[in-house]
Amino acid sequence: MTGAPTDPPLRILAVDDDPLNRTLIRAILVRADDPTVRGAILREAGTLAEARAILAVEPVDVILLDVHLPDGLGLELAAELRRGPPETRPVIVALTASVLPAEQQAAMEAGCDAFLAKPYPAAALVATIGELLPQRRRDRRDPTRGC
User: Which domains are seen in the chain, by residue range?
Assistant: First the structure.
């Protein structure tokens, strides 16, 4: 995936209460073959409250969202963002150890665009971002298109 020269750097928010999981995400991103992913600006949050505070002042392109957080379910945040304007909604990837089909369905219904079960291969995370982001960036340029 390559962004157009006018595209700003990719902005990613990793929301996970485990600092080791956030470190893993950071390592995956800086080693990604995809230059857009490798050059991303990464913000990190350990709680829903921290994620909401970041989102209140900074737009992001992608949210890597743990489902079980100390102050609630990540799916609450996904549902909140889904109710917002489609042209500003980030791509949301649920990252969770909960792998039952019902949990995956709940994530998708809440507004997640993809679901990766922990532990996930690094290549799967980069590929998921690469597959979802180009369409979302096109939709943001043309608000008449659906998301």
Answer: 11-141 (3.40.50.2300)
